[in-house]
Structures are given as structure tokens and as C-alpha cells.
Design brief:
This protein has 9 helices and 2 strands; from the N terminus they run H-H-H-H-H-H-H-H-H-E-E. The chain is mainly α.
Length: about 200
């Protein structure tokens, strides 16, 4: 990769090295809080390379969002994967988003599923959107319901899933005449609402 920062992460060998990594992380956090993104990025990068594992995902996010450094999806992906390898499973959804944006939908779904298994309720909404774009409405509806029922999905994701689920339900063909049909449709506020068609 042209101009790419090499991924060099070391494991601290002793308490002194661990303290150095922690000090770099603390300084980076202070710079970030003061609004000095470029300086914060350099310090988070140094902290990550020195072995401060919480800095790995932050470096990835800086590359992903362009905080203090030029946006670089390839570097963001590399650092997110390194963070995941070091036990930060909260980055799995972000990896899925980058892969989705690159058109690698199978890989994206795999990472979204990892995120959902790790407790990221919003990842199910991302899977649902891929299935909707593919025209797989039944699968999409299943993931929208998972989003609605997840205790870990954000309220915004639950509301968005509810709107999408209603739209999908409205697209279903009408039942045969003469048959009364009752259907329970999920409600993102919890439970199910009864509705007659």
C-alpha cells in the first residue's frame, strides 16, 4: 500500500513497557479531549504500537472517520482486524461496514454476524439492509425482528427496523377473499400488535 502505515504492534514485555503504553494512551486521550485530532492520532498510534490494546480500535476509527489523518479504509480495516484479534469484539460491526462499502457482502455479513453474537444488536439491522437490497425480504424481516427484540440495539436502530418492517408487511399480497386472517406483527416498542388484514 502506497503511503500506508505499517502495522507494528508489540506486546509489552514488562511493567515498564506497559506503563509507557498507558502513558501514551492517556496523553492521546487528553489531546483528543482538547480537540487536537492530529496530535491525538499520533499519540494513539504510538500507544497502539507500544501495546496499549484499547488504542488499536481507536486508531482504526481515526483512519475510518478521518480524525487527524486522511481517511483510509484499507488502514482502518487492518487496525480494526488487529483490535479484534486482540479481543476487542466491538469493532466487528465496523469491519462489516467497510467490507459492505467495498461490495464484499458475504464477508460483511459474516462480520455483522460476529458482531451480533458479541452483543451488538445494531448489526442485525445492517444484515437486514443487505438482504433487502438483494430482494430477500423474508430474510430481511427476520433480521429486522431480531433488531426490534434485541436488548442491545439502540433505540434509533429499533425505530428504523420497525419502519422497515411495517413497509415490508405492507408489501405482502392480500389474502384470498372470504378468509379472515389475523397476523401478529412485531412492534419495536416490544411485544406484538394484532392486526387484521
Amino acid at each position: 500500500m502506497k503511503g500506508a502505515t505499517a502495522l507494528k504492534v508489540r506486546t509489552p514485555r514488562n511493567l515498564a513497557e506497559l506503563n509507557k503504553a498507558g502513558t501514551l494512551y492517556t496523553r492521546a486521550d487528553e489531546e483528543w479531549r482538547e480537540g487536537r485530532a492530529r496530535s491525538a492520532f499520533r499519540l494513539f498510534l504510538s500507544a497502539a504500537r507500544a501495546g496499549a490494546t484499547p488504542a488499536l480500535g481507536i486508531v482504526a476509527q481515526f483512519y475510518d472517520q478521518g480524525y487527524g489523518v486522511r481517511t483510509d479504509p484499507a488502514q482502518a480495516l487492518r487496525w480494526y482486524r488487529e483490535a479484534h484479534r486482540h479481543g476487542d469484539h466491538s469493532v466487528a460491526n465496523n469491519i462489516g461496514c467497510i467490507l459492505r462499502d467495498q461490495g464484499k457482502l458475504r464477508q460483511a455479513i459474516s462480520w455483522y454476524e460476529r458482531a451480533a453474537r458479541a452483543g451488538d444488536g445494531d448489526a442485525n439491522l445492517n444484515i437486514a439492509k443487505i438482504h433487502l437490497n438483494r430482494g430477500s425480504n423474508k430474510r430481511a424481516a427476520d433480521y429486522l425482528r431480531k433488531t426490534c427484540s434485541s436488548p442491545w440495539a439502540t433505540q434509533g436502530s429499533k425505530e428504523e427496523a420497525g419502519v422497515m418492517l411495517k413497509a415490508l408487511t405492507a408489501q405482502k399480497p392480500a389474502p384470498h377473499r372470504g378468509k379472515a386472517q389475523h397476523e401478529a406483527t412485531p412492534d419495536c416498542a416490544g411485544g406484538a400488535s394484532r392486526r387484521q388484514r
